[in-house]
């Protein structure tokens, strides 16, 4: 939804009196947002498959030592994918947030709040995706993978917070009468 709002604001065009390049810039932002929306929809399908793999691995037999090792390895692989996919989604949501900031800055003042709402929605998706990463990591035996995921999630969350604050400041300046 956040990407859709970016596309909407971008497609509304530039404010009157804006430089002649701004409509093209906004149109480009709208096209990028549509691409990110498509990417996020694909990640929803990937996430479903990743969770299905976790369930399938959890259902493997665990009677013999070989079965226990096989099941454990399958769970490890499945949980890695179940962490990788939402981490990728968080990264895409961050890209949407970056676009939101741009449309709030460059778009019409009358649609700036639509860009800000897009940012709120993208931020919720980002934070939800990071929670899904965090819930899966304790089930993974590969400490290097876990540490890398946590570091990337932290980096994404930090930038998202900064962009969110910037958007709040931009909106505050626009809404002051």
Could you characterize the architecture of this molecule?
- By secondary structure, the protein is an all-alpha fold.
- The protein has one domain (2-175): Formiminotetrahydrofolate cyclodeaminase monomer, up-and-down helical bundle (Four Helix Bundle (Hemerythrin (Met), subunit A)).
- The chain has five helices and no strands.
- It has helices at residues 2-12, 22-58, 65-106, 112-136, 143-175.
- The protein starts with a helix and ends with a helix.
- The model has no long low-confidence stretch (mean pLDDT 95).
Q: Could you provide a short overview of the structure?
A:
The protein has 177 residues and is an all-alpha fold. The protein has a single domain (2-175), classed as Four Helix Bundle (Hemerythrin (Met), subunit A). 84% of the residues lie in helices and 0% in strands.
Write a concise keyword list for the protein shown above.
single chain; 177 residues; elongated
What topology does this entry show?
Elements: H1 2-12, H2 22-58, H3 65-106, H4 112-136, H5 143-175
- Strand content bin: under 5%
Determine the oligomeric state from the structure.
Answer: single chain
Name the CATH superfamily assignment.
Answer: Formiminotetrahydrofolate cyclodeaminase monomer, up-and-down helical bundle
What is the second-level CATH architecture? Up-down Bundle
Instruction: Report the total helices.
Output: 5
Mean pLDDT: 95
State the helicity in percent bands: over 70%
Largest sheet: none
């Amino acid at each position: 939804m956040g990407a859709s709002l970016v596309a909407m604001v971008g497609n509304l065009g530039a404010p009157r009196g804006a430089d002649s390049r701004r409509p093209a810039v906004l149109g480009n932002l709208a096209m990028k947002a549509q691409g990110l929306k498509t990417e996020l929809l694909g990640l929803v399908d990937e996430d479903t498959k990743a969770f299905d793999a976790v369930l399938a691995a959890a259902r493997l037999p665990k009677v013999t030592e070989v079965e226990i090792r096989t099941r454990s390895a399958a769970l490890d692989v499945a949980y890695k994918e179940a962490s990788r996919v939402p981490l990728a989604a968080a990264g895409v949501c961050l890209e949407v947030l970056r676009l939101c900031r741009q449309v709030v800055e460059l778009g019409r003042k009358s649609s700036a709040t639509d860009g800000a709402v897009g940012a709120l929605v993208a931020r919720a998706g980002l934070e939800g995706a990071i929670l899904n990463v965090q819930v899966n990591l304790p089930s993974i035996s590969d400490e290097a993978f876990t540490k890398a995921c946590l570091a990337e999630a932290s980096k994404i969350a930090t930038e998202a917070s900064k962009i969110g604050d910037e958007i709040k400041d931009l909106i505050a300046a626009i809404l002051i009468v």
